[in-house]
Amino acid sequence: MTVYINGRFLTQPVSGVQRYAREMMGALDACLGASPSMQARLGPVEVLVPRAVPAPGWSTLGVRVVRGGKGHMWEQGALYQASKDDVLVSLGNSGPLRHRAHILCLHDANLFEIPRAFGRRYRVAHRLLRPALAQRAAALLTVSQHSAGVLSHHLGVPADRFTIVPNSAEHVLRWPHAPGVLATYGLTRGRYLLSVGNQSPNKNLGALIAAHELAGPDVPPLVLVGGDVPGVTHAEAGQGTRALGRVPDSHLRALYEGAAAFVFPSLHEGFGIPPLEAMQLGVPVLCARSGAMPAVLGNAPLWFDPLDVVDMARALRTFARMAPSERAAMQVIGKAMAAQYRWDQSARRLAGIVVRVRLHAALAA
Q1: Which residues of the chain have pLDDT under 50?
Q2: Alpha-carbon gap, residue 173 to 344, rounded angstroms
Q3: pTM of the predicted model, to two decimals?
């Protein structure tokens, strides 16, 4: 028997969902390589993709191209046919409806909570697809208890059907150092604030830009990293703000490490990887008190109300006036919080779910 992975994420630009899937598979690959007993329980693990992709560098997991369309059409047709004889794991919010041993990860309820953050075609398709997938899946995963509760409300499934398999951030420690990155962008270490996220309404960048302008001249310049979202309007950079667009991971690590602080103003997050990445690298975090963020980040950040530009400006000014000892304390607390999450722990939890679903499917046959 073979465990199949929906590898569509390997063909998509890397955002939070794709980062999760890539890191989970990398961690599972490492766990299988180090544990013959886990290999024996799971058997071969094969990642199915709709077209050829660059080699991910895994040593245990196989990658196989399954031709037959792309996107949702590929998932509902070719992927289903290729995986229907055993467990299928989909880590990216979608998968084949007909599969009866389907493990599906739904990351958040942003589609329902803030629909304007999505293009019309995506919104219409997924508002129809996700409730049906949730009802039929053999097992449901999500990344936080907050997401489980909100998804339960919108999808009509009990919250306890979701198993929490969280994100982590230690992957940033594997990103290469790239000397000279700050100079390339005309930045000086410790003299700017950083925010990372795509330019959708959910990321609330318009409010952050307005708050930064309101905060006054004592607050360092604001640097924004992240790509546009097709079909969705985005915020325009204001005075004292620079938008760098997408950058490679090596540059992103340097931008994190060079920042005085990281600011995350998002309105709805099922988990929120970027602030945890910043904490992993020892960067103080200012964060919106919204969604899963209070539970994920604990007492590490300086909190603000994402719906209140004045409160956001207050947080920026408060940080700008902090003594070095206060900033150092934030760094220590943040690194300790980030250390509580590990990709290998999440991968082992996923492996246990695969074994359980396979056993249940065998008993039901």
Answers
A1: 231-234
A2: 15
A3: 0.92
